[in-house]
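Hey, quick one: can you model this chain's 3D structure?
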Amino acid sequence: MLTSLPVAFDAKSFLASLTELPGVYRMIGADGAVLYVGKAKNLKKRVASYFRDNLSSPRIAHMVGQIDHIETTATRTEAEALLLENNLIKSLAPRYNILFRDDKSYPYIVLTRDKFPRLGFYRGNPDRKADYYGPYPSSWAVRDSIHLLQKMFRLRTCEDSVFANRSRPCLLYQIKRCSGPCVGYISPDDYAADVQYAAMFLAGKQQEVIKRLNTAMEKAAEKLAFELAAIYRDQIQSLHQVQEKQFVSSSKGEDVDIVVAVREAGQLCVNLAMVRGGRHLGDRPLFPSNAGDSTAADALTAFLRQHYELHPAPGRLLVSPLPESEELEETAASLAELAGRPVPIAEARTLTQKAWVEMALQNARLAILARNQASAQQEQRLAALQEALQLSEAIVRIECFDISHTMGESAVASCVVYDGNKMSKRDYRRFNIRDITPGDDYAAMRQAVTRRYDGIASGEGRAPDLILIDGGKGQVASAWAALADLGLTHLNMIGVAKGEERKPGLESLIFPEADGRPPLNLPSDHPALHMIQEVRDEAHRFAITGHRGQRAKSRKTSTLESLPGVGPARRKALIARFGGLAGVREASIDQLAEIPGIGRELAEKIHSALH
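Sure thing. Here's the predicted structure for all 611 residues.
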């Protein structure tokens, strides 16, 4: 049901006609902009709560005073309302909604279901083709856990294309981090037992794993299989060491998320800490948008609703501060419906739980301190840069260009953006340079600047306060010519020329010829130079990464395309079987001949062409 009010808003008559079904409401201002999106178990009761005399905060009262009309959408269940609310918040970005822009997907540990399952790092949406454990708060937490599992259970981590083509064990076998299933050094049954132990460990059943390993060690010793018994002994010792290393752990092997919110020093931080299988895996601080004067409890509730619509909920949530009872009940009911099971949300009670919450609160405060310090430092550097360049207006947005190629091959230009006291990666751009003489950096720079600012010249997008060009007079002249063609010579621009022996701190700042100023050399400890170096180095990194990708793609494609008798279908089959050009080159004639569509004669031609 969709209800839209007339311009002359009458709250009393609107509430009288409102349904008591669950749903979503959108409060809209006179200019048509959405002020706030919310969900409700009972739309009538929830919307009516905004028109009481004693509202919860001045911010809410201010918002209500701007309402021109309200639109509602009824849903079948509260869980549907939660999903719709999150979709609308993301698409509409309402002014009064607290927003968490956590674009990074959380990583998982994956155990494939092959004959010899692979242990690996996974980022994305889990499917049913493998077993996934997580999510984890960071890639470091995943890689640390994989390292532990390799040490204890020696599972393979190599890709299938590598595993299928091994003729001898790799270095991981030599350092006892893999049992060598690729060359038959372990039987499928023994490997399956190790996989089962690893899965139990990831599920938090460490004590059961130790118990089973002890039994296996005793049986091996009884059969005088002392080498096997020694392996079990080492695994048991490694498990004990892992348990001892945990500063805060739970013997229950539970999965818990700790969510705390702190408002301090003008900042509002929500910190998410994760415990998986009883092991504390670190945390991730988040700073919401549109927080205004919202309380810590408001931010925490908004996070719970937004985060667990995208990510699986654990067995239990520990929170601080605890939301009000009505908000708590609604949120718990929504999460339970999404998860298909109860998801308890409570304050810490046991000593272990209190230790987890205290750590999360401390890390939230440290994140606030670091953010404020970093922000103050960045503002100081920007002010120093404005002064050094003698600019009349403050610098907020900087864009920097760099060109990367190898002897003219696969030239790529990068444009990175610094905005709002940090690098704005969503605004980064790469340009594959085309239709120029290979190796002509000046033409490449002119093309990149033209393509970047063509839209700005047409009135689209946001112009930078300062343009940095990684290069000397020639690159600056080319970039300036591009700006002149576009009618944008009013934009501030400098080049960053590398100093003697390319040493950091000896850079010269090159002004366009029309500016008339000589090159500027700042002291190596000048904060403005540090600002320039940070942005320039990021542009260089981004350009190099893009160039390497283009070069690898070009070389692999061109070489495989030049193979005699190999068309798109056969090329695809070769890459799928051997993982790329390197694998095809290492393959024997017999292995090549096994590919469907490639007989012995063609296999010999391919082998000859690559050697």
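One thing worth noting: The longest helix spans residues 351-389.
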